[in-house]
Amino acid sequence: MKRITSYQALWRPQENKGHFWFTYYDGDRQRTEDLDAESFKTMLEILDTNKPIFADHTTSAVAVHSEPSDLKTGAWA
Q1: Given pLDDT bands bounded at 50, 70 and 90, which one contains residue 76?
Q2: Strand duo 61-64 + 2-12: pairing
Q3: Which end of the chain is more exposed for a tag (fewer CB within 10 A), N or C?
Q4: Cα 75 to the chain's mean position, in Å?
Q5: pTM, whole model, 2 decimals?
Q6: Cβ contacts of residue 40 below 8 Å, gap of 6+?
Q7: What is the rounded distance in angstroms from the CA atom of residue 19 to the CA atom of residue 26?
Q8: How far are the Cα atoms of 1, 19, 27, 28, 53 from residue 42, in angstroms, in the given order?
Q9: What is 15-74 written as a DSSP string?
Q10: Residue 57, class by beta-carbon neighbours within 10 Å (0-12 exposed, 13-18 middle, 19+ buried)?
Q11: Stretch 43-54: mean pLDDT, rounded?
């Protein structure tokens, strides 16, 4: 996975499929595989954040990364 700086989403209603274009931090631009409606919606929900986003166009995987903070949570807080 590499950090992405931007993305484009393209939904094709006649085929009920869509895909994304990820632009990575190094300028590389890659297309994901086609996704069904549910996966496309889930991807849009994850991408709707101000946090750094990491992605892999070959698997259409995305991850959100939070910046370090002083917030302490969980059993060890």
Answers
A1: very low
A2: unpaired
A3: C
A4: 29
A5: 0.72
A6: 9, 11, 17, 18
A7: 21
A8: 18, 12, 25, 24, 14
A9: TTEEEEEEEETTS-EEEPPPB-HHHHHHHHHHH-SSS-EEEETTTTEEEE-PPP-S---S
A10: buried
A11: 84
Region 28-33: what's the mean pLDDT?
Answer: 94
d(CA 52, CA 74): 22
As a whole number of angstroms, the distance between CA 73 and CA 54 comes to 23
- Contact indicator for 60, 33 with CB cutoff of 8 Å: yes
Mean pLDDT value across residues 11-29: 93
Map tokens 């996975």 to a residue. 1
As a whole number, mean pLDDT of residues 46-60 equals: 83
Tokens (6 digits) for 39: 């996966």
